[in-house]
Amino acid sequence: MSADRVLDAVQAALAAEHAAVYGYGVAGARVGGAREAEAAAAHGAHRARRDALARSVRDLGGRPVAAAPGYALPFPVGDEAAAVRLAAFLEDRVAGVYSDLVRAAGGSLRREAAVALREAAVRGARWRGSGVAFPGLTERARNAVNGR
């Protein structure tokens, strides 16, 4: 495991967390009732992961990738149902990058990535109403089939 590969994987996870924080800002504004607290908790969890990853990048000698001023959403999010789909999408995406980080890293960074992968998988299952067999790998397979 090369240091550059680990740093690249941490930067990718940080970029995904930036996007998740943005996406939960959108989703959180559209979910209602009991799901508002769930969206707020997920938003907070992603902010905390984002901040920890920025520290990890600096610890590895890198400069943390900055958040973009905005992110393109994968589909229009005009109602609660779309917001729930967006939250599940965000968790799948984050799980994918943490899957990559688990493969690239070792030691405590690998353990933290595995915990983050598990947390994203659990949140994704809650939003979706069902789990996936291999969290973090399902989206990779879909993207490969679709040429992304």
Describe this structure in words.
- The protein has 148 residues and is mainly α.
- The chain has one domain (3-145): Ferritin, core subunit, four-helix bundle (Ferritin), CATH 1.20.1260.
- It is 73% helix and 0% strand.
- Helix 1 (3-30) runs antiparallel to helix 2 (35-59) and helix 1 (3-30) runs antiparallel to helix 3 (80-104).
Give the structure's gist in a few sentences.
By secondary structure, the chain is mostly helical.
Relevant terms:
148 residues, mainly alpha, Ferritin, 5 helices
Structural class by secondary-structure content: mainly alpha
The CATH architecture is Up-down Bundle
Rounded average pLDDT: 89
Rg over CA atoms, rounded to whole Å, is 15 Å
Tally of contiguous helical segments: 5
Q: CATH class, please?
A: Mainly Alpha
> Globular, elongated, flat, extended or rod-shaped: what is the shape?
globular
CATH homologous superfamily heading: Ferritin, core subunit, four-helix bundle
Summarize the SSE layout with pairings:
Layout: H1 3-30, H2 35-59, H3 80-104, H4 107-128, H5 138-145
Helix pairs in contact: 1-2, 1-3, 3-4
